[in-house]
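Supplementary Methods S3. Input chains for the assembly prediction are listed below.
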Amino acid sequence: DIQMTQSPSSVSASVGDRVTITCRASQGINNWLAWYQQKPGRAPRLLIYAASGLQSGVPSRFSGSGSGTDFTLTINSLQPEDFATYYCQQGNNFPFTFGPGTKVDMK
Amino acid sequence: EVQVLESGGGLVQPGGSLRLSCAASGFTFSSYDMNWVRQAPGKGLEWVSGISGSGGKTYYADSVKGRFTISRDNSRNTLYLQMNSLRAEDTAGYYCAKGKMLVVGMDFWGQGTTVTVSS
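Predicted structure tokens for the full assembly:
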């Protein structure tokens, strides 16, 4: 199975900050990577598909990049509604696997 | 409007069985892969199982292989997860999620249904 890691596990940030989260796959997954946002008690929300595709309705301050084994989610100008946990997920091989999550909280 | 709505969760004893359902609407159900994803209390997301649009291909996490069975009824726009030989570690919120076509990503999720395995 492909293992996904994320760093950092948590980050404290302020409104207006740029936040960068990295995700690494244990083997190459081309661009078969998605990013999700989850708030407490809520279902996950797809932000980025195919490593860099912005899901419909997602603000443009969210962006994704990377290919192969290393990927990045960037949030430009963090907004109050962005405090949440973020997960990456590979879809290159079954079983699909998620990263352990990165919690973005308020500094 | 795309909607997916899970049901069927509850309290079950270890070794017992439960069947989850996911009713879908607002899209051509048979054209899309569907997935079950779970989240244990206070933990991260775990993909459980997936099924192709036709139902001809099914996939499972190692943790549930041989115990869970995913299926779908495209005439009823409904996804199922039959869970047998349940264990305490299967306790989680279970989400139904629609896959995007041809690319990675699950773009619509239900609100989840809770499964508790306890004596």
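Chain B is about 0% helix and 50% strand. Chain B has a mean pLDDT of 97.
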